[in-house]
TrEMBL record:
One of its GO terms (cellular component) is extracellular space. One of its GO terms (molecular function) is phenylpyruvate tautomerase activity. Coiled coil: none annotated. Belongs to the MIF family. This is Macrophage migration inhibitory factor family protein. It comes from Musa acuminata subsp. malaccensis.
Length: 115
């Protein structure tokens, strides 16, 4: 169950968040090699955030997955998510961090149990 949690200081008012969620979901599923039915995307806007001492557009993300992550996949995911944020929210790629967590199924709760 890959979960991409994104926070940005950009306001999402008037933004087509459905397009961002859809593109991110498809991208994560494709690059990790998991069915999109198990991918979750969380997008939070207007988060108080400073990066490099300024409050210019920035974003932070965390991606958790049960397998499917490695150095090559992480690099591709970082580039793809950064491109989505730059295109859809005008967050420069240089003002975005993405942290990756590869975890065990027993560390993920779902459907009243664990994986």
């Amino acid at each position: 169950m890959p979960c991409l949690n994104l926070s940005t200081n950009v306001s999402l008012d008037g933004v087509d968040t459905s397009a961002i969620l859809s593109e991110a979901s498809k991208t994560v599923a494709r690059l990790i090699g998991k069915p999109e039915a198990y991918v979750m995307i969380v997008l939070k806007g207007s988060a108080p955030m400073s990066f490099g001492g300024t409050e210019q557009p920035a974003a932070y993300g965390e991606l958790v997955s049960i397998g499917g992550l490695n150095a090559d996949v992480n690099k591709k995911l970082s580039a793809a998510v950064a491109a989505i944020l730059e295109t859809k929210l005008s967050v420069p790629k240089s003002r975005f961090f993405l942290k990756f967590y590869d975890t065990k199924g027993s560390n993920f709760g779902w459907n009243g149990s664990t994986f």
